[in-house]
Amino acid sequence: MTGDPWQVDRLDLDSYLARVGVPASPPSRASLDALHEAHVRSFTFDNVDVLLDRHAGVSLEAVQEKFVGRGRGGYCFEHSTLFAAVLERLGYDVRRHLGRVGDPAAGTQQARTHMTISAVVDGSRVLCDPGFGMSLLRPVPLEDGGEDDYLPGWRYRVRRTTEGWALERLREAGWEVAHTTDDLAVLPVDVAMGHHFTSTFPGSHFRSGLMVTRHLPGRHVTVTHEALTVRVAGGPTEHRPLRDGELGEWLDALETGLSDEERELLLSRFASPAAP
Fold first, then answer.
1. Which CATH architecture has domain 8-201?
2. Among 91, 88, 67, which Cα is nearest to 78's?
3. Hey, which of 26, 237, 239, 258 would disulfide with 263, CB 3.0 to 4.6 Å?
């Protein structure tokens, strides 16, 4: 047994780095930027295992077998669990955060069902968010008013709140809150509880509808069981219903890493609404 509750010593760091195509390097902002982007581009954000009722959980061991071993993706608890372990093994000072998706000012009550990471690099703390539907490509300074405009047309900023931090994205109508996170200590049991709620609660949207997203060169693609959304930095967004038979083709185009069995089970769950 290890004294580290996150058991990061069980991470196969060499295999992870080979999977994302980035060499090991000492902590620096440039190295962290490159690693964060490589992770986000290597793994889909998706809820496939939740829909198939075969999720192995969010322990580091389970997540690395899925992501590193099979090239699959997942959602925030998985992405952040893995990425935090990678950063710790590389020597970064890491904190894990839980938060709520959406804008609290909208009046709807949201559980703490999102997980992010912050890390100290070059003397400053930055927000890493590799497991959001439209994930940051690179970290954002974790300071009030900290901004990222790595891709012109996709601007993000961090705002200090009474509980912690809000991540905002600039939309056509102005700044929109993506999620809020707090500074409370996070333990593995907190992540397991958040995952349990998100993956089993009947009202969870992850239980009823498919979501697969990925950053592709020059665009970000979101596929649900009903629709396709393609966002281009600084350009118009395409949003339309899926054509008949198109879902399966997008599962392949987004390189989801699904086995033939998983792919067929997923398609059988939804009317397979042909080509990207």
1. 2-Layer Sandwich (3.30)
2. 67
3. 258
